[in-house]
Structures are given as structure tokens and as C-alpha cells.
Write a structure and sequence with these properties.
Elements lengths: L1 E10 L2 E11 L4 E5 L6 H9 L4 E10 L2 E2 L5 H6 L2 E4 L6 E5 H15 L7 H15 L3 H5 L1 E2 L5 H15 L3 E5 L7 H14 L5 E5 L3 H6 L4 E6 L2 E6 L2 H9 L11
Parallel strand pairs: 3-10, 3-11, 6-9, 9-10
Antiparallel strand pairs: 1-2, 1-4, 4-5, 7-8, 11-12
Bound molecules: adenosine-5'-triphosphate (ATP) and magnesium ion.
The site of magnesium ion has 4 residues, from helix 1.
Amino acid sequence: MLEIRNLHADIDGKPILKGVTLSVKPGEVAAIMGPNGSGKSTLSYVIAGKEEYEVTKGEVLLEGESLLEMEPDERAAKGLFLAFQYPLEIPGVATMTFLKAALNAQRKKRGEDEIAPADFIRSVNRAADKLGISREMLRRALNVGFSGGEKKRMEILQMALLEPRMCVLDETDSGLDIDALRIVAEGVNSLRAQNRAFLVITHYQRLLSHIVPDTVHVMADGRIVKSGGPELATELEARGYADFAAQPAA
Ligand SMILES: Nc1ncnc2c1ncn2[C@@H]1O[C@H](COP(=O)(O)OP(=O)(O)OP(=O)(O)O)[C@@H](O)[C@H]1O
Ligand SMILES: [Mg+2]
């Protein structure tokens, strides 16, 4: 599904990703853990196509197609979805309007018709109810004045509506209370499917006990330095990242 090969990326001439190689199969949930500043968010931004990042080497393939030459909206139309560590606030745009525009933009790129208004309302309401998002919140401007946890739930709502193939979630668990964590994890679990894969970036084993990953990868100093199964997350929780701290600095 997602194939990252020897990816190198700079920001302002400073190398951040130094040869990331990672492959995520259809149906798989892969987790990335790693110390602060190791490049996890940078990896998600590069996958999304954020323009400040310059890819100097390597490639990223989504279902065999190279993503790096595509504009961010093309990537989304190909089925890529990213939930960022810090969701953007969009003043003046009602959440409902934003969701509809996002969904229709994607349908248009794919050569599909706009969604019928009644169908749209029905699917938003259904997904919102599942995630404990009130109708009042849907009428407010996107993310403006939403609490940290409410923003994260809203990201999962967008994901449920857009039905992506490849979902990258950057610290979707940070700032969530215990109930919200469970709701968000259930939202992700209910979207797990044979033709969909997830890359979940997290610091905590706690999330991974709700969203049990198939594989766990450790990122340190811009590279994947260790891969394993779910037990690796438990091990890291107990031992920390000290084993990886001795990586040579660039
Ligand atoms: N615009 C920028 N200018 C300079 N350095 C940057 C910029 N953006 C990111 N960096 C640096 O890149 C490195 C990787 O940052 P990144 O956000 O990818 O880390 P992370 O693994 O997501 O960390 P965390 O666990 O704290 O979220 C950090 O050292 C950061 O300071
Ligand atoms: Mg980060």
C-alpha cells in the first residue's frame, strides 16, 4: 500500500530525514514511535506534500504510484489521509461546509458527481454520533475554540467521511482524555479493512493497547532503527529510547 524507500528530506537546508525505509501492506496497522525531534512529524508532512520540506533522495509510493510529484490534493484523491499533530483552525468556515467541500473536491478529482445534500447530512450525522460530536459543534467554525480532544475527534470524523486507503495519524492520542481515547481508537478500529492501511505515530503504548498494531517501528535521528511486532511497543514503554540514543549525529 505505502512504500517508503531511502527517503531523505531537508528543511531550510537542514537534513531531518536521513534514509527512511518503511513498507505498509494493505490491511496493516503500522505504528511509529521514537524520541522527540526524531523526524516522525516531518515524515508525515513529507508524505502529505507540505511544501517547506525538500526531498533530496528516495521515494514514496502509494499503491505503486509515486506520490512525491503529486500536489497534496492529488494525493488525497488517490486515497491518502493525514491527521496532523496540530489540527488547523479555520475561522469563518463552518465545519459542515468544510467537510462537504473536502469530500466534493476529492470526488471531483476522481471524476465523480457531488454528493447529494441529504446523503451528506446523513453520513456526517452518523459518523458524528459514533464519535460523540454534537450537532452544535458541526455548526461551529472548523476547530475554532474546539478543545484539543474535540479537534482529534473531528479529524477522525473527516477520515470516516473520506474513506481513504492510507491513513497517517500523527499523535492522534495526545491531549485525549480516557473516554475520548477509547472513542477515537474505536473510530480507527471500525475503519480497519483489508484494502486500507494505517500509519499511527504515537508516544504511548496506551493508544496501541486500543489500536493493536501489526508492526511497530522505532524512528531515531531521521531513520527507522528497529522494527518488530506489538511487543516492541511494550518493551519501549518499559525501557525508553536509551538503546537508540547512541545513534551517531549527522
Ligand atoms: N521549520 C523547521 N526549521 C528547522 N528545524 C525544523 C523545522 N521543522 C522541524 N524541524 C526540526 O526537525 C526535527 C524533527 O522534527 P519533527 O517534528 O519531525 O519531530 P517528531 O519526531 O515529530 O517529534 P515529536 O515527538 O516531538 O512530535 C526537530 O529537530 C525539529 O526541530
Ligand atoms: Mg511530532
